[in-house]
């Protein structure tokens, strides 16, 4: 620990002012802002990553980050904030949180995690910004849509056609079985009438 005091001369007399009787540097850290922030947006998500500079390795492992992003044309006062759960210098934003065709700006800052007891820090300044835009979801062409529609209708249409042919075949077979029984008496009567007429002539 350290003792911090200020000295000054007032009306020709030296005065000492005690500022911190016990000052521990590890409890008063302010880190440099993250740098090299970059982004890559697709139709499903946006990936953002960055790096930190002049940070010892034992602090880099216990850092926490806060991401801030907004529509590019809006003010930072209405930006959305995300405190990231991991000390990894990266984050993903789901596409459902972004409007299609709208440009966004994002920035990030860091500090020692609040869960850490050995060190304490305040937030760093904000990093430079990165600009990204969600990619549009590709539209299905009219030809592909029509093909899918035909595939969807093919099964019920095929089933209906087969059912129609089945019933037609069944009805045709019934007619073929019934016709001889119905025509037989008529043929028989016609033959009998011919025989009777012939016999009458012979007589």
Automatic annotation (TrEMBL):
It comes from the Eukaryota. The lineage of its organism: Eukaryota, Metazoa, Chordata, Craniata, Vertebrata. Keywords: Glycoprotein, Membrane, Receptor, Signal, Transmembrane, Transmembrane helix. The chain crosses the membrane at residues 149-167. One of its GO terms (molecular function) is cytokine receptor activity. CDD domains: FN3. One of its GO terms (biological process) is immunoglobulin mediated immune response. It is a single-pass type I membrane protein. Signal peptide: none annotated. Gene3D superfamilies: Immunoglobulins. It is found in: Membrane. Residues 33-135 form the Fibronectin type-III domain. One of its GO terms (cellular component) is external side of plasma membrane. It comes from Platysteira castanea. This is IL9R protein.
